[in-house]
Design goal:
mainly alpha; two-stranded antiparallel ribbon; 4 strands; 57% helix; globular
């Protein structure tokens, strides 16, 4: 299939111009909310050069300095470190790093290969889990799945360390097929039982995963109609050989980057999946085609995703160029239902509309107020709209341009302007910012 048939590259034209709204859309979906300077740079550069830069930054995210940071962090982590400490570590990277697309795709894979410290208990294993995601996030999906199959955190999370010859545990084999590669309907219960035998023989000894040949089932297994003395790598290979695998991943990427309110057409999925297979499951090749497309910048995709709690909170902090502590923010995000390194189940976060209800909307408003009011002891004045605006005479214009890219009815802007005029410039601007970040439009990515 010709990729241009359903994923034609977007090139600005008089009929479909590059605008501030499209720049904001691109930076929200490929990151966690833009700053004013990032918006302006994207607007000046145009869509394709901006994507060139984002992918280039993301590709160069695993260098020697990164490896050194991981090693230092692993040494410094106490054995009993909790999930909030780990979440704060990742949030610090998201808040202060210069590679937004890299962290965004890492978050996608973390949700896809959902693994939680609540059961794993070992902070160092969870950090290693992130490191694996980070190194392969935009690379070969085969390597990523193979790595996950023998990742200590995953092996504890899905009980591979309890699987023995004669008593195989089916948890990992089931989720490998149902949630990680194929989706329901593309395997049988017999496939799961046979595949589980291939992952036997691993156990946790002295905080290390070791392989015990005598506990491994080395007999023939029949999976998807193919018989052989399959090991774990073979099972992954057999899963990825099925056409359903590429289509399954395309659909999940679409929901994460495009829309959690509408599904892609079957033709669009098949075309992208064919490209993915031809590229030997290279994530960069697939995402480049999807994110550069006219469809990505179309009205059917624009503001068709509900922001996750992390996107909501980080978007406020980054927009106002705040310098807050990641630990108190991680604690507040737990109340909103999203703690990094602790998704609620093997299915990850439900996302989409599930992020929003009467309680979470109230909590979002409270968090926006805590971040911007300067009165919360956890954040003080480290994310102060007044400092950010530096005496700007048009706060409504500046803030709606920053947070909504002017994507707001004039009647709503008039009401915000009237509110700003009626309140003192200091706390009035802070309250104005809180109002804007509580608007329905700001809840959508």
């Amino acid at each position: 299939m010709n990729i241009d048939q359903h994923w034609k590259r977007y090139e600005p034209s008089s009929a479909n111009p590059w605008t501030l709204a499209k720049a904001g859309h691109l930076l929200r979906r490929t990151g966690f909310g833009p700053t004013t300077s990032e918006l302006q740079q994207a607007l000046n550069d145009g869509p394709q050069p901006t994507l060139d830069r984002l992918f280039s930054e993301a590709k160069h995210s695993t260098d020697a300095a990164q490896a050194s940071e991981y090693a230092a962090r692993e040494r410094s982590l106490p054995r009993d470190a909790g999930g909030t400490q780990l979440a704060a570590w990742w949030l610090h990277r998201i808040l202060n790093g210069s590679k937004p697309l890299h962290e965004k795709i890492c978050l996608f894979w973390h949700d896809h290969f959902a693994t939680s410290i609540v059961k794993v208990q070992q902070a160092r294993f969870m950090l290693g889990h992130y490191r694996l995601l980070s190194e392969l996030a935009l690379g070969d999906f085969r390597k990523l799945v193979n790595g996950m199959s023998f990742d200590p955190a995953m092996m504890i999370w899905l009980d591979t360390v309890e699987s023995r010859k004669g008593k195989p545990n089916e948890n990992y084999a089931r989720e490998l097929m149902e949630l990680f590669t194929l989706g329901i309907g593309n395997y049988t219960e017999a496939d799961i039982r046979e595949a589980a035998r291939a992952f036997t023989g691993y156990e946790l000894l002295n905080n290390r995963i070791v392989f015990s040949p005598r506990k491994h089932d080395d007999g023939d297994k029949t999976v998807f109609g193919s018989t052989g003395n399959w090991n774990g790598d073979d099972i992954v290979r057999l899963c990825l050989a099925k056409p359903a695998c590429a289509e399954f991943i395309v659909r999940k990427l679409y929901r994460f980057f495009f829309s959690d309110l509408a599904a892609p057409t079957d033709d669009r999925v098949r075309t992208a999946a064919a490209l993915y297979r031809e590229a030997n499951y290279d994530a960069t090749t697939l995402l480049q085609a999807m994110l550069r497309s006219e469809h990505f910048f179309s009205p059917t995709v624009y503001r068709r995703k509900v922001k996750s709690p992390i996107e909501f909170a980080v978007g406020i902090v980054r927009g106002l160029e705040g310098n807050i502590g990641a630990l108190p923010l991680a604690q507040r995000l737990e109340n909103l239902g999203q703690q990094l390194f602790a998704p609620p189940s093997v299915k990850g976060w439900d996302g989409g509309r599930s992020w929003l209800n009467a309680q979470t909307l109230l909590l979002r408003g409270n968090l926006a107020s805590a971040l911007t009011s300067t009165r919360d002891s956890a954040f003080t004045d480290r994310c102060d709209p007044v400092k950010f605006l530096k005496g700007d005479v048009s706060p409504v214009d500046s803030l709606t341009k920053l947070f909504l890219q002017d994507d707001l009815p004039e009647s709503a802007k008039d009401k915000l302007a009237a509110y700003a005029d009626a309140h003192p410039k200091g706390d009035g601007i802070r309250s104005l910012t809180h109002l804007i970040c509580s608007l329905p439009e700001f809840q959508l990515a």
